[in-house]
């Protein structure tokens, strides 16, 4: 007789009754009547073709067959309960936790202030964020790829595509950079009125592109080299001068009183992509965040033009 011919309810009732002091206690645990307990056990005994309990009202004792079966069934049902609980917890937590890796500047000047909007739309999705230095992406490309491949993160934002065919990479937006000056500077970057500096990394591709396309403006002030673009923007809080900013970040409150010289913008050589491990079907949380991110970025870019 195959396993499918045995009553699962009868097996569960027997597992509880065999480890309870009496059928009365088993009935209380299972919220059944004592007569129902007896019927289930009799059904199982008929299916097995052997008694499982001694028929003596004074003794609640198992037969040799019952002693053999009871511990095995009890362990199986305990494992089943654990698996069901883990599956329930997985549905409540792991499947709705989205691990996202973004450049530090993207989180600081754009994403952080908009996460409440995403949570309001998708309250069942928890976004777990991690960052990497935007200026060091090339150095960390191998690590970013490995973390995506191994499922340590679900989505990563990168400038330019990662060199790995096992990843799915979707275009998010094409960054533009333009000069921005602090309130202590003149409103016309082309006609400086007070001393100041350019704060930029001369080795960055963005600055080199700007120098080629905006030669006159790039030479309007002496260049003070900084290792990171974010440092240049922070220096403008205290010192007069200009720096280059991703126009996507220009709406941040930190830059509300600063002057954005949009007519002198240049396009970055590297578009921004969101990368994820290639698969036929992505989790709902991944799809929801990707669509929300793309939509909100396009809204921001439209507002700055």
UniProtKB/TrEMBL annotation:
A molecular function GO annotation: transcription cis-regulatory region binding
SUPFAM superfamilies: Periplasmic binding protein-like II, Winged helix' DNA-binding domain
Keyword entries, A-Z: DNA-binding, Transcription, Transcription regulation
Any single Pfam family the record assigns to this protein: LysR_substrate
Origin superkingdom: Bacteria
Domain annotation HTH lysR-type: ranges: 6-63
Statement: the UniProt record of this protein carries the keyword Cell cycle: no
InterPro entries linked: LysR_HTH_N, LysR_subst-bd, WH-like_DNA-bd_sf, WH_DNA-bd_sf
Keyword DNA-binding: yes
Similarity remark: Belongs to the LysR transcriptional regulatory family.
Stored PANTHER family: HTH-TYPE TRANSCRIPTIONAL REGULATOR, HTH-TYPE TRANSCRIPTIONAL REGULATOR GLTR
Protein name, UniProt field: Glycine cleavage system transcriptional activator
């Amino acid at each position: 007789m195959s396993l499918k011919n045995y009553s699962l309810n009868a097996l569960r009732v027997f597992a509880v009754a065999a480890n309870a002091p009496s059928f009365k206690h088993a009935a209380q645990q299972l919220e059944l009547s004592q007569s129902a307990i007896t019927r289930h056990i009799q059904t199982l005994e008929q299916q097995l073709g052997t008694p499982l309990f001694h028929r003596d009202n004074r003794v609640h004792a198992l037969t040799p067959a019952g002693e053999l079966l009871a511990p095995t069934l009890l362990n199986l049902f305990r494992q089943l309960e654990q698996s069901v609980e883990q599956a329930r917890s997985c549905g409540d937590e792991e499947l709705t936790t989205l691990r996202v890796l973004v450049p530090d500047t993207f989180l600081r000047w754009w994403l952080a202030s908009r996460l409440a909007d995403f949570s309001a739309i998708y309250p069942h999705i928890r976004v777990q964020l991690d960052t990497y230095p935007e200026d060091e992406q090339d150095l960390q490309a191998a690590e970013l790829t490995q973390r995506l491949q191994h499922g340590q993160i679900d989505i990563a934002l990168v400038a330019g595509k990662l060199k790995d065919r096992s990843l799915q990479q979707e275009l998010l937006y094409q960054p533009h950079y333009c000069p921005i000056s602090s309130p202590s500077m003149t409103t016309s970057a082309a006609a400086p009125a007070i001393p100041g500096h350019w704060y930029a990394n001369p080795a960055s591709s963005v600055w080199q592109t700007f120098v080629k396309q905006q030669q006159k403006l790039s030479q309007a002030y002496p260049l003070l080299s900084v290792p990171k673009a974010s440092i240049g923007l922070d220096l403008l809080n205290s010192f007069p001068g200009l720096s280059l900013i991703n126009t996507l970040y220009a709406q941040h409150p930190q830059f509300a009183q600063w002057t954005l010289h949009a007519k002198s913008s240049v396009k970055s050589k590297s578009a921004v992509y969101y990368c994820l491990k290639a698969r036929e079907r992505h989790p709902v949380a991944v799809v929801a965040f990707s669509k929300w991110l793309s939509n909100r970025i396009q809204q921001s870019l439209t507002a700055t033009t």
